[in-house]
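Task: sequence design from structure.
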């Protein structure tokens, strides 16, 4: 089980990086393609800051913080791997780690993160939000870690 869990960051980061490369090659910045029965929009958007381009004018700070947070997530993941059970937390931290690696790779190599997914909705502001699989992994991972921590604390009582 540990080997499988430890492969999650490599698999998720690799998949996201490969998809980003494909998006870079095959989509123009104004192109949009509907996929998954029209429920998801594929587009190319560059993000030079954190989520929603926060601190986009401070790329060194963004890259430094991304690196530090990614390292902290990785170290916490290594600590968790030494613990018995706690599978939900371990899975979550590995997902978050893969997403962090992928986005850090983009910042280090491209100087910006490539986002490419949007959800089609009648709310135009929500539909304008574009993200990538790495972002989804960070979000799902954070929720899994939180849920796992809550369950772990509850069982300890």
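Answer:
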């Amino acid at each position: 089980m540990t080997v499988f869990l430890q492969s999650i960051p490599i698999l998720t980061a690799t998949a996201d990086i490969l998809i980003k490369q494909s998006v870079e090659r095959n989509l123009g910045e104004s192109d949009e393609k509907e996929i998954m029965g029209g429920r998801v929009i594929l587009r190319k958007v560059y993000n030079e800051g954190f989520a929603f381009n926060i601190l986009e004018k401070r790329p060194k700070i963004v890259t430094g913080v991304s690196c530090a947070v990614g390292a902290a997530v990785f170290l916490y993941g290594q600590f968790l791997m030494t613990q018995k059970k706690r599978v939900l937390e371990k899975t979550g931290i590995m997902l978050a780690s893969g997403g962090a690696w992928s986005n850090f790779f983009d910042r280090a190599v491209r100087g910006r993160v490539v986002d490419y997914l949007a959800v089609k909705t009648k709310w135009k502001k929500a539909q304008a939000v574009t993200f990538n699989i790495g972002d989804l992994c960070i979000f799902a991972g954070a929720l899994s870690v939180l849920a796992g921590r809550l369950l772990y604390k509850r069982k300890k009582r």
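The chain has a mean pLDDT of 89.
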